[in-house]
Amino acid sequence: MNIGAIYIITHDSRYTGLLLNSAASLKRMMPDLPITVFSQFPLESPDFERVIRVEASQDGFYDKTLFFQQTPYERTLFIDADTYIVEPVPELFTMLDQFDFAATHEEYLNTDWWNRYPRPDIPPSFPEFNTGILAYKRSPRMDSVLKDWSELYRSFLEDHPGQEINDQPFFRAAVYSNQARIATLTREYNCKFRGQGYLNGRVKILHGHVDLQLEEAFVRKALEVLNASSKPRVYIAGTVYEQKLVGRILDRRKPGLVGRFPLFPEPVIVAGAKRLRQMLKERGARRMFLKLIGRGREGGAES
Fold first, then answer.
1. Which DSSP symbol is given to 259?
2. 104, 172, 204, 231 — which has fewest CB within 10 A?
3. Would you say residue 221 has pLDDT above 80?
4. Residue 231 within any structural domain of the chain
5. How does pLDDT run across 137-194, given as a tens digit for each residue?
6. Among the listed residues 78, 86, 55, the one whose alpha carbon sits nearest the alpha carbon of residue 3
7. Are the beta carbons of 63 and 49 closer than 8 angstroms?
8. Are residues 156 and 8 in the same domain?
9. Which of 188, 204, 235 is the last residue of a domain?
């Protein structure tokens, strides 16, 4: 069977370091799995079977919808650059015996933050899937989903130039209007660890970054706590809880602390100072100062 993993990177070369580290973690866990990278930028690594140089469109998320369709594999695991593979996941390919694709639900359910792509025809009970970790196979049904995904996004970009959005609202619409068989993965396969979620079993894939960094020591601290228990548990803001039964007469249920892990790889005050310097550099000192004191453009101050 022709299986493999793909990464896609366009528009922002700062993600190349994350991608190289993610691919290295994947190779450590699944050394025989070939990796193909679609990249706008020159990349070299012994972990890659192939790097396909590509031209970027006007939108990096739209690029993703195009290159999904160009996978060289019959069964593909797409992986975002800001991930860390903790354990082998061959079962994701096995699931494709019965399903067209496998993904977790989006933790926020809807990432169309500004309601720029309303779809009242789709019930809210059908949320988005997080496309950062997605296993899929070549099939007529999945081919139709991928084609509709890119065409819906392209139409939006043509009709709404300059409006920011991401690919997930369009993937949701494409899946809803097609007949693809969906396998909904649990959060262990796409643990957005700096946010919130529910786990039951060991984390297999971590997802997230801090200022385009995902350092090994930082990852290890998070994993020590997240995987300190394999029982049903929740995590939020770096704190993990599992259920405890207390009481001799009544089984009262209370949250039991599993542990805490840092949300930044360095002390918060250091991370805050670095972020402020970066914001000043990107936005300009005067504009940033006005925003911090509440006198930005929204408050009527002159720019």
1. E
2. 231
3. yes
4. no
5. 999 999 999 999 999 999 999 999 999 999 999 999 999 999 999 999 999 999 999 9
6. 78
7. no
8. yes
9. 188
Write the CA distances from 97 to 5, 74, 75, 131, integer angstroms: 17, 12, 10, 20
Say if residue 297's pLDDT is above 60.
no
Task: Provide the domain limits for residue 23.
Answer: 3-188
Residue 168 is part of a domain; what is its CATH number?
A: 3.90.550.10
- Output the CA torsion sign for 175, 95, 24, 272: positive
pLDDT at residue 285, rounded to an integer: 64
Residue 301 binned pLDDT confidence (cut-offs 50, 70, 90): very low
Residue 51 exposed, middle or buried by CB count within 10 Å (0-12, 13-18, 19+): middle
Supply the pLDDT for residue 300.
Answer: 42
| 281 in the same domain as 139 | no
Provide Rg for the chain, Cα atoms.
21
Mean pLDDT of 7-36: 97
Would you tell me how many other CB atoms lie within 10 Å of the CB of residue 7?
26
**Domain termination residue (choose one: 161, 188, 215):** 188
Q: What's this model's pTM, rounded to 2 decimal places?
A: 0.88
How many domains are contained in the chain?
2
One domain for residues 288 and 160: no
Q: Which H helix or E strand runs over 198?
A: strand 196-199
Which residues have CB under 8 Å from 124's CB, separation 6+?
109, 110
d(CA 195, CA 173) in angstroms, rounded, equals 25
- Nearest Cα neighbor of 211 from 130, 262, 167, 272 is 272
pLDDT class of 250 with cuts at 50, 70, 90: confident
Domain membership flag for residue 151: yes
Domain co-membership, 45 together with 181: yes
Question: Residue 295's pLDDT is what?
Answer: 52
